[in-house]
Design brief:
Strand content of chain C: 15-25%
Mean pLDDT of chain C: 82
Mean pLDDT of chain A: 81
Structural class of chain A: alpha/beta
Strand content of chain A: 25-35%
Strand order of the largest sheet of chain C: 6-7-8-3-9-10
Number of helices of chain A: 2
Number of strands of chain C: 10
Structural class of chain C: alpha/beta
Oligomer: heterotrimer
Largest sheet of chain A: 8 strands, mixed
Number of strands of chain A: 8
Radius of gyration of chain A: 23 Å
Distance between the termini of chain A: 75 Å
Largest sheet of chain C: 6 strands, mixed
Helix content of chain A: 10-25%
Chains: A alpha/beta (158), B mainly alpha (255), C alpha/beta (276)
Number of domains of chain A: 2
Distance between the termini of chain C: 70 Å
Chain lengths: 158, 255, 276
């Protein structure tokens, strides 16, 4: 009987370790632990060029993540990319509607994300509203081209 | 020559048929297990607990090696912040399920085959039958479900310890930024796409490996030579099945 | 236990008619007829390789015959459903040549195994029953040993205790004396007789140990070439004029069963080798 008890304890330990590992995989290693699962509201933004932006890329204000890119599509009528941002519900009505959306790059070769610079308007962004002021992604080849041909323009430099 | 090939093919087909026929009583044995969970507990001990050590050590070292090698490549492009993502992705998607299944086949699968084969050779299975106990439900089914349950848990443990090993080497030895390591990992690894698919993979591998091990033991020639051949076959067939299935599953999931 | 349809003392417990069984191309049994009466010890003798173990497996329903019928207690074993067959097997004990003890269980747990599988007795009841059965085979003191620690004879006695755990109506012994020293043989002979008489069992022995068989059997069948060659009480057999039986019982090296395996003439064989 003693040995049987020992086996039961060991199997219990085994199961506990196994499920703990599964839990850690889900919460610590994947995005499940960091993902925001509450209400979202949607804002669209149009860009001339989104570069390497992907869905699920972070949307940040002042470097803090407030949402994720939900959908990217191309609008053939005005030849621009339409990006739908899912922003956490707690920021509904707290982002001015003249805010500025940039496509930025984390590090030199890192992932691209959207950074929002808040404007000064009294009116706030709501469900389905659009950010009209956007800046396209930095495309390295274009910058290099501009640099080589010496055409220094105001845009594209930081 | 053609004759030989045909004969071999027919033999392989009949074996495959017998293996499938075995599945039915295995699943019928589930009712018996639900009635007496202690049957499953005993088998989980020999299949799971005894495999724990090799899985843990292997996971840790594989993670450490991944971090070293990955760092060498990534730092050339200045991308060492992606190290966490690289280590975790290769572990969760591929190496965790596959290496766990291979180690499981070598450690637990071969032991299962040998045990069942010896029980057959020493007439223990016949003896059970004559005691009006169905050996398929009483002996094989608990082992089967223990394997099915143990492999996904072992694979999860393998991946976790692998990430830990990668973090130890990456963060500690190579000086990669800790926050970048974890954030890159959490951003890159998707719960549905990566974790769930990895678990599905290891479930499939657990099913196949345990099934092969049990069938080879139950179907072996009941002599010491037959048992040793069956044990070898278990390891070879399981390994090939795991690698082949891994390709198919990867193509389906990530293709 | 349920009432059997032919619970008649005169009816044989096992009736085998026209049994034919084939392994590969070779007919192991070719029209075998055997009656095993209730309450006695019936021995089935024959040289090695005549399929004596196969016969027991056929009676137990582990193998199916190619032709012919085997009835146990008036029921055709191979026409039974799986549950019916299992119910029948609970009334049969079988002692395998190797003992077939479960190697990962102790002696006590081995004997308790059928009780735990088939009855809903409490642990204390099981303990009492197991100790009684072990006492009957003289191994109550060995209850905590593992099968690997037992000698061959002891393993067989434990297996015997396990076989009688469910109080069966019939026990089949597969070569109980093979490979035993004279003392173990004597012990087993005595045990088989005692158990048979004390519990009103029907015993079927399969063996080629002539001396022991003639000592305890009530009735003996001698099979060879897939058929019954002779049958009768041990005294009848010992005085039998049949040439084959004489050779078998007295262990003569040559006779109807030739010393040489069929082969071409030695001289031809040797010459042929020289040509190549």
């Amino acid at each position: 009987m003693n040995r049987k008890r020992q086996i039961e304890i060991w199997v219990g330990v085994f199961m506990a370790i196994g499920f703990a590992a599964l839990f850690l995989l889900a919460m610590k290693i994947s995005n499940l632990g960091t993902a925001y699962s509450g209400e979202l509201f949607h804002v669209t933004a149009r860009f001339d060029n989104i570069g390497g932006l992907k869905t699920k890329a972070p949307v940040t204000i002042a470097g803090v993540e407030v949402g994720r890119v939900q959908e990217i599509r191309y609008d053939p009528d005005d030849f621009r990319a339409v990006v739908v941002l899912g922003i956490q519900g707690q920021y509904l009505g707290k982002i001015p509607d003249d805010s500025f959306a940039n496509i930025l790059t984390a590090g030199l070769l890192g992932e691209q994300y959207i950074g929002i610079d808040p404007g000064g308007s009294e009116d706030m962004l709501g469900e389905g509203s659009e950010i009209s002021m956007t800046q396209s992604a930095l495309v390295l080849e274009k910058i290099i081209g501009q640099f080589i041909f010496g055409k220094k323009k105001g845009s594209g430099t930081e | 020559m053609l004759n030989l090939l045909g004969g071999w093919g027919l033999q392989a087909l009949t074996r495959l048929g017998r293996a499938h026929l075995l599945l039915l009583p295995l699943f019928r044995g589930l009712t018996e297990i639900l009635r007496r969970p202690s049957l499953l507990v005993d088998q989980l001990y020999s299949v799971g607990v005894l495999t724990l050590l090799i899985i843990g050590v292997a996971g840790l070292f594989v993670g450490m090696v991944l971090a070293l090698q990955g760092y060498n490549v990534l730092s050339r492009f200045g991308g060492d912040t992606a190290l966490g993502f690289m280590v975790a992705a290769s572990l969760v998607r591929e190496l965790g399920p596959v290496l766990t299944a291979l180690l499981f086949a070598g450690r637990a699968g071969s032991a299962l085959t040998a045990e069942i084969g010896l029980m057959k050779a020493t007439e223990q299975l016949s003896g059970l039958e004559m005691m009006a106990v169905n050996p398929e439900c009483r002996v094989l089914a608990p082992r089967f479900f223990a394997g099915l349950l143990a492999v996904p848990l072992l694979a999860a443990l393998f991946s976790c310890l692998g990430v830990l090993g990668g973090w130890m080497v990456g963060g500690g030895l190579l000086g990669v930024d800790q926050a970048a390591f974890w954030n890159g990992m959490q951003d890159g690894i998707d719960f549905n796409d990566d974790i769930i698919n990895g678990v599905i993979k290891s479930l499939v591998f657990g099913f196949v490996c345990t099934w092969i091990a049990i069938f080879q033991g139950y179907d072996c020639v009941p002599t010491s030579e037959g048992v040793s051949r069956a044990t070898t076959r278990t390891v070879v067939h399981s390994s090939l099945a795991v690698l082949g299935l891994d390709f198919v599953l990867t193509a389906l999931m990530f293709g | 236990m349920e009432q059997s349809p032919a619970d008649n003392r005169e009816e044989p417990l096992v009736r085998i008619r026209g049994l034919r069984f084939r392994r590969g191309e070779r007919w192991i049994f070719d029209g075998l007829d055997i009656d095993i009466p209730r309450g006695g010890i019936t021995a089935i003798m024959g040289p090695s390789g005549t399929g004596k173990t196969t016969l027991l497996k056929l009676i137990g329903g582990q193998l199916a015959p190619d032709d012919g019928t085997i009835e146990v207690d008036g029921r055709d074993v191979h026409a039974l459903s799986t549950t019916g067959l299992y119910r029948l097997r609970m009334r049969m004990g079988m002692l395998f040549q190797s003992g077939a003890l479960l190697t990962d269980l102790s002696v006590f747990d081995n004997v308790a195994f059928p009780l735990r599988e088939h009855t809903r007795l409490t642990e204390s009841m099981i303990r009492k029953l197991v100790l009684l059965k072990l006492e009957a085979v003289g191994l109550r003191g060995a209850r905590d040993l593992m099968p690997a620690e037992l000698s061959g004879g002891m393993a067989r006695r434990v297996a015997l205790a396990r076989a009688i755990a469910l109080d069966p109506t019939m026990i089949m012994y597969d070569e109980p004396f093979a490979g035993q020293d004279p003392i173990s043989k004597g012990v087993l002979v005595q045990l088989i007789r005692q158990l048979n008489d004390a519990a009103d069992l029907t015993s079927v022995l399969v063996s080629h140990d002539v001396a022991e068989i003639l000592q305890i059997a009530d009735r003996v069948y001698v099979i060879s070439g897939g058929r019954v060659i002779e049958s009768g009480s041990p005294t009848e057999l010992a005085e039998s004029g049949g040439e084959w039986t004489r050779q078998f019982i007295h262990g003569l090296p040559d006779g109807p069963v030739p010393f040489h395996y069929p082969a071409p003439l030695l001289a031809d064989d040797l010459l042929q080798g020289a040509v190549c």
